[in-house]
Every structure is written in structure tokens, then in C-alpha cells.
Amino acid sequence: MSEKVLVTGGTGTISSGLVEECVQCGYDTYAITRGNMKYREVDGVHYIYSDVNDTNKILNQLKGMRFKAVFECLAYTVPQLINSLQLYADKCEQYFFISSTAVYNRKDGIISEDDEKNLLSWSYSKDKIACEEYLKFYSEKSGLNYTIIRPSVTYGNYRIPFPVTSRANQWSLIQRIVDGDPVLSIKIPKLSYSIIHISDFSRAVVKLIGNEKAINQDFHIADAKCEYDWDEVIYAIAKALSKEAEIVHVPLPVFKTTFARSYDELRWNKSEDLRLDDTKLKSATGFEARMPLEEGISLMVANLRVEYEKYNTSLDMSWNRCCDHTIMAGYSLGMVDESEAEIVQKYMSKLKNTTYFD
């Protein structure tokens, strides 16, 4: 009988990749999900339909079960982590917590797992840091074997690796390229950012199950050859669509007024280099990334197209308007480059006879 593993979530980018890789590696794979996106389910996975906050129901559903590993993909705050530990800590041999590379302070050069993790200016990273600290405290008290996983930008079937995207519908960004509309980006010096496809991410993480080098350790999932600039992502999407992409770069201060909901993430996590030392991960697993950016982007575009067209998902018009307002604001303030100002002028002519901004 194969060993059991459990993933919380199961239909998001990280969790769906993990369940797929676990199945391929021969694990008896379970996932706890609300069941709202059954079209994303992976063949061979046992889906347990429940809200992660319904503790009594989950305890009953998992009664008598024990797992080789539990992957916690849905805990973002300490109270959520505490609830997860109450549910799964005594049911697993190894508890994986999905944290984030957002915890690291940025610095010149390459970041290793030993570097400081005290980026407290953004609530998301502050909460993840607190979760990591609590998990270590809990482990010391209880003897739980844990492994902390820090994704950087992980993309795949359901996520575009780009800082200015819609959380409600990822196809919304791609549709702008399809329609010939300018893509909004941040005006920053060319950077190098660790970006990895979910198939590579999942393969690396699953290699840490039962791995003695992973017990009570932390890993960011990276390969030194997978570092890209944001513009490269947009041009790869355009190539997959057989389209041309026009990008308008707007300085970060403009976003604070026109795109406030995205500003903190852009300011603290997506506007500086993120180069990650892959030594520790490769030492523990021998991991090497296999998916080139263009190939991964092509697969992503094809899948997002199917989801958008087949399942009638709606474009995120609120996000779309925020993009346009930010582009127009940057232009009106004289903060876009001359060549990009021409792109904005052309776009304004296209919108002139519409009621788009009414």
C-alpha cells in the first residue's frame, strides 16, 4: 500500500502542482478543498470537500488517517497556522509549511536561506515571518518534524508570473495583449527575479518528503538559471499568442494613488532584484529546473484560454480600469518615456469615443 500525503487547497497554483506531482510519484494523495473549482481537479487524487475552518468536520473526515506528509498551503496568519496544526500535526510524519521568499530583506547579490528574514513593512511578509517563528516554537515544544518552503514567483496553469495581474481572472492581462492594449508595468531598472514553473517547483518539494536533510529545515525553491526581467514575461506571452506586446512603465509612486490595492506588494516584493542561492536545495535533492520560460508560458496561455472560454469566466474590469487609470496618470504627469507616451496617445485615441471612463 502506498504512503498517504495530504495537501490543503488542491486547486490553486501551488497546491494543484503538489497534488499532481505526488500522484505521479506514487503517493496516495488527498486534498482538502471547498469543491468550487472541480474542473481543476487532478485525476487520481482523493478530494475531501470541506472548508478549512470547519475543524470538527475535517477531524471527522480524517478520522483514523495518518500521512507521510501534510502540505499546508492555506495558512497566511498565525491563527490560521494554529488551526492547521491542531488538525494535522498529530496525523503526519512531516509537516510542510508554504511560506514565501517575501520574508527576506532585499540586498545586493544572492540571497541564501541563512539571510535575515525580517521584512516587516508589508503585512503579508510580516504574517509569514510570524508563522515561521511560531512553527519553530511549536516544533521545539511538540517534536513535530517540519519543513518550511519559500516559493518566489511560481507560475503554471492558473497564474501569470507578472507583478500587475488580476487576482480574480488571470486571462484579463492576456486579453489586453490580444486586443492590442498596452500592458501596465513598473518603471524600475532592469531586474533579475527568480521565476519558476510549477512543475519544477513541485518536483523539488516532493523530493523533500522523508528526506533527512529537510527535517526542521527551510528551503527557497529556485534554480539560478531561472532569473528573468518582468518584460521578458510579457514578450513570452505575446509570442505564445503570435501578437506584439506594448508595455507602458509607470513609476511606483503613481500606483499608490491609482492602484492602492497592489502598491504594497509591488513596493516591497516586486520592484527589486530577487536572486536566490540554490545550493541548499540542490544539495538536499539534486534538483535542476527543466522548464524554459517560453515553453512554460506557452502552456500557461493555452490552459488559461481553455479556462476562460470553456468555463465562461469573466474578465476583471475593475482591474482593467485600474491599469488604464495608472497608465493615463503616469502619462499626464510626464512620467512615462517618450516612446511609451506615443503608445498611450494611440490608446487614448482608441478609447476617445467610448464610455469606458464614465
Q: Uncertain segments of ≥5 residues (pLDDT<50)?
A: none
Major sheet summary line: 7 strands, parallel
Strand content: 5-15%
CATH architecture of the largest domain: 3-Layer(aba) Sandwich
Helix content: 40-55%
H-E order: EHEEHEHEHEEHEEHEEHEHHHHHH
Strand order of the largest sheet: 3-2-1-4-5-6-10
Describe the 3D structure.
With 358 residues, the protein is an alpha/beta fold. It has 2 domains: 4-156 and 195-220, 3-Layer(aba) Sandwich (Rossmann fold), CATH 3.40.50.720; 171-192 and 229-350, UDP-galactose 4-epimerase, domain 1 (Alpha-Beta Complex), CATH 3.90.25. The chain has 13 helices and 12 strands. The chain has a 7-stranded parallel beta sheet with strand order 3-2-1-4-5-6-10, with helices on both faces. The chain has a 3-stranded mixed beta sheet with strand order 7-9-11. Strands 8-12 form a two-stranded parallel sheet. Strand 1 (4-8), helix 1 and strand 2 form a beta-alpha-beta unit. Helix 1 packs across helix 6, helix 8 (252-258) runs antiparallel to helix 9 (260-269) and helix 8 (252-258) packs across helix 12 (317-332). The radius of gyration is 21 Å and the shape is globular. The mean pLDDT is 95.
